[in-house]
Design brief:
This protein has a four-stranded mixed beta sheet with strand order 1-3-2-4. It is an alpha+beta fold and 171 residues long. The protein has helices spanning 2-13, 22-31, 43-48, 78-93, 110-123, 126-131, 137-143, 148-159, 167-170; strands at 34-38, 59-64, 67-72, 100-102. The radius of gyration is 16 Å and the shape is globular.
Length: 171
């Protein structure tokens, strides 16, 4: 699973231990050259760039040459904020971003699915879940407060662990 491996590489490169927190995610954003800006603090900039329509989404990314900004909704819960920003980081790391803004494409688009898988793994890697001995949803929730889709993804992976990605292979 390519997205899981890329997420693990980003975490390892940044010395992040799971579960992910906002400080870690801010550090990761800096390491990939992206600035994190909330909708409230970036209101004027969003207006100047003509990107108001994108604020209907939990987060979106704007790129212009070497400038990359991830805008996000301030009032999201921590798990939803971690997922939304991690999803945008996934677009950047997986090279889905081009000049302009990327706010939304159809949910079934391959790049959206890839960014979601990357985000699920960045927030709490399957490798960590297995290493902690998690076997149920409750076990996962004991180590990390995650979104329902993230929990569903990891629950399914626990049942059908098929990526073959292990700590030994990642070192």
């Amino acid at each position: 699973m390519f997205e899981a491996k890329r997420a693990w590489e980003v975490l390892s490169k940044n010395g992040v231990t799971a579960p992910l927190c906002m400080d870690d995610l801010t550090h990761i954003c800096g390491s990939i050259g992206a600035e994190l800006v909330s909708y409230k603090s970036g209101k004027v900039l969003i207006q100047q760039l003509g990107l108001e329509q994108n604020t209907k989404y939990d987060a979106f990314t704007f790129r212009q040459d070497d400038t990359i900004i991830i805008f996000f909704r301030d009032e999201l819960s921590t798990p939803n904020k971690l997922h939304a920003i991690s999803h945008e980081v996934g677009h950047i790391v997986l090279q889905h971003i081009y000049n302009g803004s990327l706010g939304f494409s159809t949910v079934d688009a391959p790049q959206e699915q890839e960014a979601n898988l990357f985000a699920y793994e960045l927030v709490i890697p399957s490798l960590v879940i297995r290493t902690c001995g998690c076997q149920t949803d409750e076990d996962i929730l004991r180590i990390c407060d995650v979104t329902k889709p993230c929990l569903g993804y990891h629950s399914q992976k626990l049942q059908f662990d098929s990526d073959g990605f292990t700590l030994e292979k990642s070192i």
